[in-house]
Write a structure and sequence with these properties.
The protein is built from 19 helices and ten strands. It is of the alpha/beta class and 583 residues long.
């Protein structure tokens, strides 16, 4: 139950409506307890003075008044307590989402999205039910049950002790069942996470599923998880379905004993008929506290399991975060220095980068190139602190990258990945994502620089065309150019294009290169590509191989060296000429 401590700030914020709701709830309980007293008075009046209708009318009015107040107060407490449960659910979901946005990339590499979706849906619902119906059931069972027992004891202590004989047995069985409930509900939630991830994976990869006719396999896989989820839910239902019938059964046993012994007491005139009827009424009221106790324990336990799962996420700390008290230095213009940079994705793996040192002056253009797997993308991720280096330093204008706030760093250095992500919205919305205040002229300039403006004019709705899920209505090259235009609209001090033009043809690529030369004059542009032909005009070429920087310089300098770059360049040049028939 310690997991509920994370809710304390929200409970304190909503203390007033929650307290008023509890007052109304307790008022309903005590009004319900008063009704058997009114019935006792009516019956005693009838037995003492048969035909005394005048005396009965008073009790009829009292019962109607109590029932009316029960209706009103119950409506108020449901709105206040359940409403507060909804507000806490909303606040906790927002907190979870905000926390997820701050976590490092490595967390998402080891955690499935389906699992996170399950936390944001099923687990949140379990918490809300615990704060709503669970809280009400527990409080109702304790207050109403205790008060009903007190009234029963006031009427006849001996009969009360006899009627309560099943309570120790009920408490023991409830305790044992609640432990089993906790274990089985945790298993259910874990399997639900697996189902969410399986469905998400199948739908995201729907093109591969269809291309290889894997529908049957995916159906069987999901069916296996669903059957497991069904079996676990049935096992859980065996526990939860025992709690309520158990309480009803034990209450019925008590009622049978009370009817037998209490009936004799009425006959022997040890208690009045009114007392006996009131006692039976109070015993009837106990059936709800007994069953509510089991139901409340069920909901509270479920909420505790879900809170434990949520808390495990909230306890995660981002591996990459700002140091306290950072202030942003001037980063425009921006010189970039890398010294002895070494990086491995885990301690067990070989380093992807090995002692890389390079310097990029402000205002120029360069390309980081090399064969596939040489560490080009890893270097780009390190420059924007999406990864942390094991050894070595990265400096901007002489300032260590760790001394610069992340927000300022990523505003100064923008990375466009090879596989751009587009939201299921319009072209305009995706373009204005990082700079919503940009005007039409600025958008047109950015789109023209990315060689995408003319194509957009052919779309039926132009900039207001909805691109669909992940930009599904656009080709690979169009998505890359829209992503490039989005970055150009911000126009940072340093722009890194990680194979951003890999899906466009050579003619369009060269046109974009020329456009970028004019658009980004005075700012630094870093290209990452394994394709060497077409990049001869950049200021500096950095050639990586197996994680090491083998050589650097201008195209002419590297060709004269006749090293690894020159050999790979001649090979790619010949391959292109053969493909184009220019030999």
């Amino acid at each position: 139950m310690r997991s509920y401590r994370i809710l304390l700030p929200y409970l304190r914020q909503g203390l007033l409506p929650l307290s008023v709701g509890i007052v109304f709830l307790l008022s309903v309980d005590f009004l319900q307890l008063s009704i058997p007293r009114f019935i006792k008075g009516a019956i005693d009046t009838l037995t003492a003075k048969p035909g005394a209708a005048q005396g009965l009318f008073k009790y009829v009015l009292l019962i109607l008044g109590a029932a009316s107040l029960v209706f009103l107060f119950r409506m108020f407490w449901r709105r206040l307590i359940f409403g507060q449960g909804r507000r806490i659910e909303e606040a906790l979901r927002n907190r979870l989402f905000q926390h997820l946005l701050r976590l490092s990339q490595s967390y998402y590499h080891r955690t499935s999205i389906g699992d996170l979706m399950a936390h944001a849906t099923n687990d949140m619902e379990a918490v809300r039910m615990a704060l709503g119906m669970g809280l009400v059931s527990m409080m109702d069972s304790l207050v109403l049950g205790s008060a009903a027992i007190a009234f029963m004891a006031y009427i006849n202590l001996k009969l009360t002790l006899i009627s309560l004989w099943p309570m120790p047995l009920a408490a023991f069985l409830t305790h044992r069942l609640s432990r089993l409930l906790h274990q089985r509900f945790e298993m259910v939630q874990g399997t639900f996470s697996q189902i969410m991830e399986k469905v998400r994976e199948s739908l995201v990869g729907i093109m591969v599923v269809k291309a290889y006719t894997l529908q049957k396999r995916e159906e069987e896989n999901l069916s296996r998880f669903s059957l497991k989820y069904q079996d676990q839910n049935i096992a859980l239902a065996r526990v939860t379905s025992t709690l309520f019938p158990l309480s009803v059964f034990l209450t019925s046993l008590s009622l049978a004993v009370v009817l037998w012994i209490g009936g004799k007491q009425v006959i022997d005139r040890e208690i009045t008929a009114g007392d006996f009827v009131a006692f039976i009424s109070y015993l009837g009221l106990l059936s709800w506290p007994f069953s509510a106790l089991g139901w409340g324990i069920n909901l509270i336990k479920r909420g505790a399991v879900s809170l434990e799962r949520i808390e495990r996420i909230l306890e995660e700390r981002p591996e990459i975060a700002d140091l306290p008290g950072l202030t942003a230095p001037r980063l425009d213009p921006l010189d970039l220095q890398v010294k002895e940079l070494t990086f491995a994705y885990s301690e067990k793996e070989k380093p992807v980068l090995k002692g890389v040192s390079l310097e990029i002056k402000s205002g120029g253009s360069c390309i980081i190139t090399g064969k596939t797997g040489s560490g080009k993308t890893t270097l780009a991720l390190l420059l924007v602190r999406l990864l942390e280096p094991a050894y070595g330093t990265i400096s901007l204008n002489g300032h260590d990258i760790h001394s610069i706030p992340l927000a300022d760093l990523r505003q100064s250095i923008s990375l466009i990945p090879q596989e751009p992500f587009l939201f299921s919205d319009t072209i305009r919305a995706n373009l204005l994502l990082a700079r919503p205040e940009a005007g039409e002229v600025e958008m047109e300039e950015a789109l023209r620089a990315a060689a995408f403006y003319d194509e957009i004019q052919t779309f039926p709705q132009g900039l207001d065309t909805v691109v669909g899920e992940k930009g599904v209505l656009l080709s690979g090259g169009q998505k890359q150019r829209l992503s490039l235009a989005r970055a150009l609209l911000v126009n940072p001090s340093v722009l890194i294009l990680d194979n951003t033009l890999s899906s466009v043809d050579l003619s369009t690529e060269r046109s974009i290169q020329e456009n970028l030369g004019h658009f980004r004059e005075g700012r630094t542009t870093i290209f990452i590509s394994h394709r060497l032909v077409g990049w001869e005009g950049v200021d500096t070429i950095f050639f990586l191989e197996a994680g090491k920087l083998l050589e650097w310089g201008s195209h002419e300098q590297l060709i004269r060296k006749d090293g690894p770059y020159a050999r790979l360049y001649r090979y790619q040049r010949l391959e292109l000429e053969l493909r184009q028939g220019a030999f």
